[in-house]
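Hey forum,

I'm writing up a methods section and want to include a predicted complex as supplementary material. The small molecule is nicotinamide-adenine-dinucleotide. I've pasted the protein sequence and the SMILES. Can someone with a working setup run it? I'll credit the forum in the acknowledgements.
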Amino acid sequence: MTGNRLENKRVVVTGAASGIGRAAAELMAGEGARVLIADLNADAAAQAAAEIGAGAIGIAVDVLDEASLAAMISRAVADFGGLDVLCNHVGGSNPRKDLDLLHLDLAEWDRTMALNARSTVVASRLALPHMFDAGGGSIINTVSVAGLVGDTLQCAYGAAKAAVIRLTQYIATQYGRKGVRCNAVAPGAVMTPALRDNLAAEVIADIRSDNALDLIGTPEDIGWAMVYLASDESRYMTGQTLVLDGGLTAQSPIAASRRKLLDD
Ligand SMILES: NC(=O)c1ccc[n+]([C@@H]2O[C@H](COP(=O)([O-])OP(=O)(O)OC[C@H]3O[C@@H](n4cnc5c(N)ncnc54)[C@H](O)[C@@H]3O)[C@@H](O)[C@H]2O)c1
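Reply by user p_vandermeer:
Happy to help. Structure tokens for the complex are below, copy them as they are.
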């Protein structure tokens, strides 16, 4: 599917060699954007760019490294002549180390905060002056439903995503008058390599039965929301977190078990 919803937009997506970021980059390029695909996996980034075409460029970045993020933003500005959209998409935590509070590995807490929250601060700071030069821009942060509600495990991940949700509001508040909008997308479970590697098939089936919709999300389900937030169609929206979770967090906590009783 191709259109022109993002014609003339110059976009950077981190973590775009795989999963949701890759889908978002492809959908954005299909809507006319010039997209820089930045990923720790340089080969996969180059391959994604080649497959997407439309002038997409693939480069290596490590979002944990400030100099690497600075090189990423400079490359986008040099190649595209400026920057309009930054997607701070990389995130996650190691589920074997990010456990409940009593068993959480504190080094993993620090790494998770850096990977999800500090990287978003650093990349956004580097991007903002270029957005001001362009007369405005859109920052899109990928968070998670884990940042909205508590869970039994992965407390560093949830806390880091919650930090990014609040940071999204601060960026929106502080730079709205300069024409910069900042919003977040909060996916529930999405069928990506990360999900497949970290969760057993029965757990994924369980999540599906907990959702209000009888679905597990696809990368494109989130990618289309990112297209909207990158486009001028969302020009009156800032500081918001768009939740795309099959209705998981819209329900009363007891709805899923009630549904199972009704089904029996
Ligand atoms: N998949 C889901 O179910 C789900 C749900 C909620 C939120 N999310 C969020 O979506 C984002 C990514 O998820 P995905 O499903 O697209 O994952 P994915 O594993 O498919 O892709 C992640 C990409 O990030 C890259 N990456 C990892 N560390 C990096 C680093 N330090 N610097 C640069 N790139 C790095 C990887 O090489 C990979 O290409 C994360 O922020 C995650 O928290 C995913």
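Some notes you might quote in the supplement: The CA atoms of residues 147 and 162 lie 4 Å apart. The mean pLDDT is 96.
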